[in-house]
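Write out the 3D structure for:
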Amino acid sequence: MSVLCYNDNGWVIDHQEIVRQWYKNCKITKSSLPSSSSLTSDTNSLKAKLNTDNMSKAENREMSNCERLTTALQLKNDLFAIKSPYMMDSQFIKLQKTLETDYIPSTTSRKRKKKVDKIDEDCSDYTVIKRLSDAHKSLISLAQDEVTIQINQLVHFNCILPTVTQILGEKYLLPVNCRFLLSDWSKLLQTDITNGNRFDLIVIDPPWKNKSVKRKKSYNTVWEDTLLDLPIYQLINNGGLVVIWVTNKPKLHSFIKETLLPSWKLKFCAEWHWLKVTTSGELICDINTTMKKPYETLIIAQYINNKDNCRPSLLNQQVIISIPCSLHSKKPPLLEIMKPFLVENPKCLELFARNLQPHWTSWGNEVLKHQHLDYYEAT
């Protein structure tokens, strides 16, 4: 089970286990393997044949033209080995310099230490921090107790097994029955990614502008007003939910609730938080400082065109706890948690995606980034 435990405060989930289940039986050939891959270390698993006794004739025909080798893949364990709280970049550099060169900081000119601000109890963040701290304490305690493709074209990959394939000269792992569009922003607005259907769940993770990204120039960002052009109300089913990942900047929260949601004809439903912990359950950084936070916010809204068909109301102020993947901006999958509030077998869409999910439609200018075979290993 990927949901390890839950209570009235929220859930503790296993992000790595969710992805492991997606790729527990992958179609792969020796020619697909990178020479340095750990997959080559287990020749027995690579030579394991599919059990075709219970496969349909159609499925056998599907596999007849390829080598019937399967193996289980997972995101590398190192990506989830978050064993201690995060350090700021400057702290890490200083530590590395100390370890590698026996560097001793000079004491001749001492600078006054900059005081780290604490959250005032009258501040608007205080209620959130107290609630997340309480959720962290109760949920962690509970968990420990329970021990050939082209850019700008919409692609539908409907193979019966997850498959390693070559795209634009690189090897990627594709989940079953996924649809994706690798394109820039303008192509998204020009391409029909609905294929005549609407979606019951839309997850949006915009590359919000911030000082860190601007300084590092690590990826392209979008202005808030640009999101107003997204025709969300044309993509969402009646009663469907839209989940927006957002930074902890109050200005963005106000923009989403007061401007973006009304323009998309959506009704605000709930505000949840994703709380990040280490492998021992410790928060990845101090929750009380005004600097980097150990949590991110999810704003959830609903499209209501016919009140008779509305789904049950979402619980507000819920907390999702998990060990974060060390790949930048890789969010935990949400479908298992959202299922009680969705129709059966929901159609799902992710915008600004950096990875694919089975049975989902995904769009982004880096939509295959976290599907690269280099991030995976044999289980």
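The radius of gyration is 23 Å.
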